[in-house]
Amino acid sequence: MNPAILEIGPLAIPVWAIVLGVGMISYLNSAAILVYAERRIAAFIQNRVGPNRVGPFGLLQPLADVLKLLLKEDVTPTHGYKKLHAIAPMIPVITALLSVAVIPFGAGLYVTDINAAVLYLLAVASLGVYGVTLAGWASNSKYSLLGGLRAAAQMISYELPMGMAVASVILMTGSLSLIDIAESQSMWWNFFVNPLV
After folding, report:
1. 110 near 98, Cβ under 8 Å?
2. Per residue in 127-172, pLDDT tens?
3. H or E element that contains 168
4. 3-class SS at 8?
5. What is the predicted pLDDT for the residue at 44?
6. Bridge partners of residue 5, in order along the sequence
7. φ, ψ at 185 (rounded to 5°)
8. Cβ proximity of 129 and 93 under 8 Å
9. pLDDT cut 70: percent of the chain above it
10. Among the listed residues 49, 138, 35, 130, the one whose alpha carbon sits nearest the alpha carbon of residue 91
């Protein structure tokens, strides 16, 4: 019998899978617990009762919030472009997920190694602006369009200072690869080498 495998009848489950499953379930449940705790503490600070309607002491309030969110109506503008209105929020999410591909999470924990990963990261992150602009335009309202353009201009204006900050790190490490940048900071962070960066 292998101690790293738990045998339950005909099932043989690795212990690491059980530990990972328990950890993931605990992590997902912690969001509901922390939201409930935040609401109770905020109510105490404001001299209110807080959530107390659903379940004993309001313990089922996070579950009720999830059900309420899932059952809400999806409002689309009557004269807007419905398909574009549905696609627009997906663009920033997809660009955020694409940027994760080049981020090294540890030694050997990365999806891909690109020599110009910093440029890829800046380029993909800037594509999220199109989703915001498209969402404003697809609603077929001048106010939504102006709001989307304002948000897009704000996002674009943040890219120049962010690029300048990243350029200082590139100059210190001499590489555009995020893996090389992470490895160069394995002994000392760049902050300790040059605090002005």
Report:
1. no
2. 989 999 999 999 888 998 999 999 999 988 988 898 888 888 898 8
3. helix 142-173
4. strand
5. 92
6. 14
7. -100, 15
8. no
9. 93
10. 130
- In the numeric block, which tokens belong to residue 7? 């045998």
CA atoms within 13 Å, Cβ hemisphere of 176: 10
Residue 152, both tokens: 């897009």
Q: 138, 132, 33: which is closest to 85 by C-alpha?
A: 138
Q: What pLDDT is attached to residue 13?
A: 72
Element (H, E) at 12: strand 11-14
| Band of residue 3 on the pLDDT scale cut at 50, 70, 90 | low
Domain boundaries, the chain: 5-70, 82-193
Residue 103 near residue 178, CB atoms below 8 Å = yes
pTM: 0.64
Torsion-angle region of 72 (φ positive above 0: left; ψ -120 to 50: alpha; else: beta): beta
Q: How far apart are CA 32 and CA 26, in angstroms?
A: 10
Which among 164, 94, 82 is positioned nearest to 128, based on CA atoms?
A: 94
Q: List, for residues 94-121, the tens digit of each pLDDT value.
A: 999 998 888 888 777 788 888 899 999 9
Which of 95, 77, 87, 76 minimizes the C-alpha distance to 134? 87
- The total number of residues shown for the chain amounts to 197
